[in-house]
Amino acid sequence: MISFEELVRLTAGKLLQYQQEYSIQYVLTDSRRLAHPVSSLFFAIKGPFNDGHRYILNLYQRGVRQFVIEANHTVRELKSEPSLRQNFPEANFLQVSSSLEALQQVTAYHRQQFTLPVIGITGSNGKTIVKEWLAQLLSPDERVVKSPRSYNSQIGVPLSVWPINQNHTLGIFEAGISRPGEMEKLAKIIQPTLGIFTNIGQAHAEGFVSREQKINEKLLLFQHVNLLFYCLDHEAIHAAVKAANIPAFTWSRYQPADLQMMSGAVRGSQYTLEFRYQKQNNLLVLPFTDEASIENCLHCLAVLLNRQVPAPEIQQRFLKLAPVAMRLEMKEAINGCYLIDDSYNNDLSGLSIALDLLQNQTRTQKKTVILSDLLESGLAEEVLYQQVADLVQIHGLNQLIGIGPLISQHQQKFNLSRVFFPSTADFLKKFNPEHFRNETILLKGARVFEFEKIVNAFQQKIHGTVLEVNLDALVHNLNFYRSRLAPATKLMVMVKAFAYGSGSYEIANLLQYHRVDYLAVAYTDEGISLREHGISLPIMVMNPASDSFAKLQQYQLEPEIYSLYILEACIQALPNDLRYQQNIHLKLDTGMHRLGFTEADLEELLTRLAATSQLRVVSMFSHLAGADEVQHNDFSQLQITRFRQMAAYLETRLGYSVSKHILNSAGIVRFPEHQMDMVRLGIGLYGIETAGAKQNALRLVGQLKTTVSQVKAVAAGDTVGYSRKGVADEPKQIATIAIGYADGYDRRFGNGVGQVVINGQRASTIGNICMDMSMLDVTGLEVKAGDSVEIFGENSNLTAMAQKIGTIPYELLTNVNGRVKRVFYTE
Ligand SMILES: *Cc1c(COP(=O)(O)O)cnc(C)c1O
After folding, report:
1. Modified residue N6-(pyridoxal phosphate)lysine is at which positions (predicted)?
2. Which of the chain's ends, N or C, has fewer CB atoms near its CB within 10 Å?
3. Is there a single domain that holds both residue 133 and residue 42?
4. Average pLDDT over residues 474-488
């Protein structure tokens, strides 16, 4: 806790307005995450894509009274002291040179007030898993405060450290950096007393000149630790630690170290390792067999040994470890319900993030949370459940289902429709699917409550094929394109054709959350469906049917007007009320020759517009026919010139200014100087850079997966599938998989053209693709029924796949049939 006065002193900022003392219990950087208005301190941070100052008025209206702002912002209400007094009569304002720095100073100061041991974790991989596992492994002895999920950035670390209080006995925080200079700041906030350096990737990442520079930068986290845990076998780390003279606890697979692995063997789903510590050999059984998990376990083992946890205890605790589900999944369930599956842990900060997500789902009106007891909070029970109840309250939910003895004890604190069960088994015994209908349900449970059983009860029986959509990757791509735009350029995102196959509502909702300016769909029905699912962004409809204008008005959709004919249909449908205003977008044909007005139409267009006061042209645009191909550069330039001329002429004649735009995804990358007022992002958002120049900057969004239904041996001379096209010239193993052309696996991938990946191995199709199934030649491969098969994803290049059958990635994406279930997840 800190007073406003201390805040002024700490940040050496300028006190612009002080009205009265409020308590500062929460720090807030994202206006969407407001939970406790009166006791929150808002830091208005300017990022590359957003500016916190823009949300201050809104936050004030919602009850926030304490603000840290910067001097050079563009928000009028904040510009002068009289204006502050007038617009924010009850608020305190502190002005600093950097709000982010102020947040870091304040949390560093907060950290200093506590003497608890703190473990700082960095490295290229495994940070979050090691953190989560250590918290689990040490929780019988400690009250742990830790970073939620992978909050390890310049903003994430301060937000992670702020909740430390006097009840905690151990802190575990992760730190991630992307450029020099960042770790020093994180180290000041975390102030670790112990450190773990997990590993270092081979590639020297963007932002650093060399791998050594990156290692040394990361080491800055550990300058003052009493002990650093790391693996000797990462030679570059070892050399750097020695050079920096940091006291160390080492472990190794091959050489003498404080903890040495002597041998290891896989037995079924377990890994038994023999290790040597303090001259004694011991056995430890781990419930994992993959390399990465074993490395993560050894980091944890080193810490447990050093903290003198007795050997039998260590063994017991390791056997209870479960894989950390890094992803928070969203999926369809019974009776039109929708699940947010966050069933792997339950602590306060994670709960708050998940409730935000639930609140931001507009797909269903009704929202339910199923919540277990919270573990590892470090708060007195009374205080803890009051905070949980407050969180649930402010997120405006309809129903709470509490599971566990503790939450049940505190049920009277919850002020909404509620039911409680002592255990997951009790809930399942009484589970009636009919009680749940058209609602979004968040499942948030501590591991011991085994909420995965509840997830199973809710899940629909599904066809074996799923399209997994990585929402974090999508946001990454969105930010990549945004970073290429001038600050004033607006962003329209194309979500036509089911958002290029990814799922319209979910993508639109995410885009709305990330504040894009416009959405565009192909047909009126697509727009209506978005509105019915609660999407309130402006939506342009590119191809409105002439009889759909009444619906367009009803749902506040904005038509693309591309011909005099469609303009007439639009005018005919206008209501009699002369105050009614219909926003329209004019499409100009500059060479694509698909839709759009040509120069010959302009006079008549202007005459009609001048005669109809209810129409307002909000944008004019054109579409490039070959933006992604160098060979068409001259033509693209010609289109741009034509567009600029036509648009300037129309604008002058209309007598008011109108937004202009011409660039699609490839255009954004290739013709940044022609951004004009807005751009229209399409396929790039979904991770495909058709210009081919920036593919590495994008992340894969969709992975199409199915399962093996059956594996069988086929004798030499036999054939496989329809028309006997697949011929076994020798004895073969054949796997049948649950995807066919009706799902979107193109028939042209048959007869060896298509390749898929099973258990890391490539397999080719054999015979014709069937409607719902396909056959693979898996001779000599390790494949069994039930195995997962990647049709496209991490291991495939969608552009190359498309070329193989003479098409483009757009078609592969949009061909994934609507019956294929979409699973959305965040990492
Ligand atoms: C689909 C579409 C876009 C987006 O194109 P991408 O190549 O996917 O970026 C832009 N403008 C119009 C008019 C479109 O139809």
Report:
1. 496
2. N
3. no
4. 92
